[in-house]
Amino acid sequence: MTSASHLDEWPLPAFKLNSKLAIVEYSEEAKKLVGDCSSFLEILDEGSKEKAREFLSSDRPSEPLELNFISVSKELFLGDVYSKWESDFCLNIVLVPKGNRLLEITSQLLSLRTRLQETNYDLLLEKERTEELLQQVRQLSAPCIDLGKKHVLIPLFGDLDPRKIEVIRFHILNRIYETGAETVIMDLTAMEQLEQGGVDYLESLMQTFKVMGIHGIVTGIKPQHALQLHHLKNGHDLHFVSSLQTVLASRKLLL
Amino acid sequence: MNSKSQELADLFLAGNEDQALHLVQTYLEKHTKDELYQLVLTPAMYWIGELWEKNIITVADEHLATAICDFVVSVTEVRRPVQSLQKKKAMVLGPEGEDHYIGLKMVASLLKENGWEVQYLGPNLPLDAAIDSADRWKPDVIALSAALAYRLPVLKKYAEAFIALDFKPTVVLGGRAVSMANLPVSDTEGIIIVKDLDQLKNWIQSGKEPDNDFSISFG
Q1: Is residue B105, in this structure, part of any structural domain at all?
Q2: CA distance B50 to chain A (A)
Q3: Is the dihedral of CA B112, B115, B121, B125 positive or negative?
Q4: Which of A21, B71, B161, B207 is the most exposed place for a label (fewest CB within 10 A)?
């Protein structure tokens, strides 16, 4: 190799190879990048050797050839190789190293996406937990209190919606059956919103009481509930009393 | 390669995650996850590797395709822990220098679906860090994979280091490099070689070593 190669002035790493891909001459830039070496295949990563051999040996139209190189500091870097056979014995090569920026951005995007995916999953778990808690709250919002003398008091808390009644229905009926109660007092004092769907369910619950031979009393109705509830009375063995205290006193359930 | 894999590879390379996911979800209506991994995703990703060797796509394209494939695998993964009486533990990783990790993710997912507790450590893990994690967690199985043939010596080094650990984990080796290797037969106790996900699944479920007509010497 001549000490003052005319490739030295080239702004990019350049090589001259013979037909066996041995390096005959290389530029200053090339030397800086890959160090001293005798064969072009030597400066390639294992996985790129076969590809280089196949593509460089044949004189295919000059699409850039992407290869992985090993730098003088033993680091892998990706580069595009432009090549042209000058004669049967001489192959001119220019190497354009690729910045890693694109790959970095790809991996950053991927990690962002993974994080979104994780968050999504965490949110799903939280949602399921919230549902469970809500279910628990619904169950707890209708305790059955045994007052003795075959009376059971059920104070309803919160909003009355169909889902709540659905959840508490089984629990209530079971408890009433267990205690052998004959009168159930549903107290709505702590009831907030009354949905029409909830009213319908309440009606069917009362219907069930009746079938079980249980007398139902509804107490603690607020004026805003009265309008929605007044039709409940039609055809049912239901009893409305304004305050719970009245009922308890009249039935001598107060201490 | 089948037309589904071809179609999916094209979608991966185009960065079309919506359609890729749609294709995969439609496929899963009539097929199992194992079939998806083994018959569709694996050939699609191998094909993408070949396209680079043929100088048709660039590394950037490969990375995009991998990211989309990763996304699809993650979305279809079973997240709920499978109930199982005795939970076996597996650690899944790729050796240093090996950046191909889709196979590892599929292995982790397969193990999880079979009721295993899995620690996925990802690709390109230095041996020291791997040994350290293994020592702390003491998995029953350590699964390793390599995509490129010249990574086999590193894989061997890792495998030998793992079987020498005092809690004697079983080492499972797989990946494209392993399935394409054609080396003399030799058995080393504690090392299982699986050619593909199907063999892995058989091993998980039956505990029987795959009966390959090739093997890698770890003598």
Answers
A1: yes
A2: 10
A3: negative
A4: B207
Amino acid at A19: S
Closest by Cβ to B59, choosing from A65, A66, A121: A66
Residues B29 and B50 placed together within one structural domain of the fold = yes
Looking at the fold, whether B94 and B184 belong to one and the same domain comes out as yes
A15 has a pLDDT exceeding 90: yes
Q: Is any Cβ of chain A less than 8 angstroms from the Cβ of B120?
A: no
B154 interface with A at CB cutoff 8 Å: no
Check CB contact under 8 Å for B59 and A106.
no
**B12 inside domain:** yes
Question: pTM of the full predicted structure?
Answer: 0.67
CATH of the domain at B172: 3.40.50.280
DSSP string, A145-208: EEEETTEEEEE--EEE-HHHHHHHHHHHHHHHHHHT-SEEEEE-TTEEEE-HHHHHHHHHHHHH
Range of the domain at B156: 89-206
Over residues B67-101, the pLDDT tens digits come to 899 888 988 886 666 666 778 999 999 999 888 99
Query: Residue B218: its pLDDT value, please?
Result: 53
Cα-based distances in Å from A49 to A21, A52, A57, A83, A100: 11, 5, 12, 15, 21
Pick from A60, A57, A27: nearest CA to A41: A57
* Cβ-defined contact of A78 to B59 (cutoff 8 Å): yes
Contacts of A106 in chain B (CB under 8 A): 60, 63-64, 67
Q: Where do the structural domains in chain A lie, given as residue ranges? A: 14-98, 139-250
Low-confidence residues in chain B, pLDDT < 50 = 184-186, 219
Whether B55 and A114 lie within 8 Å, measured CB to CB? no
For residue B112, give the DSSP letter.
H
* CB burial readout A53-86, b (16+ within 10 A) else e: eebbeeeeeeebbbbbbbeeeeeebbbebebebe
Res B6: pLDDT: 95
B108 shares its domain with B155: yes
B214 touching A (Cβ < 8 Å):
no
Tell me the pairing of strands B117-125 and A191-194: unpaired
Nearest CA in chain A to B70: A110
Number of compact structural domains in chain B: 2
**Does residue B122 lie in a domain region?**
yes
Question: Is B172 a domain residue?
Answer: yes
Closest among B112, B196, B146 to A46, alpha carbons compared: B146
d(CA A26, CA A97): 15
**Test mutation, A53, A106, A125, A126, chain B, max B CBs within 10 A:** A106
**Statement: A14-98 belongs to CATH 3.30.450.20:** yes
Q: Report A:59-78 residues touching B (Cβ under 8 A).
A: 63, 65-66, 68, 78
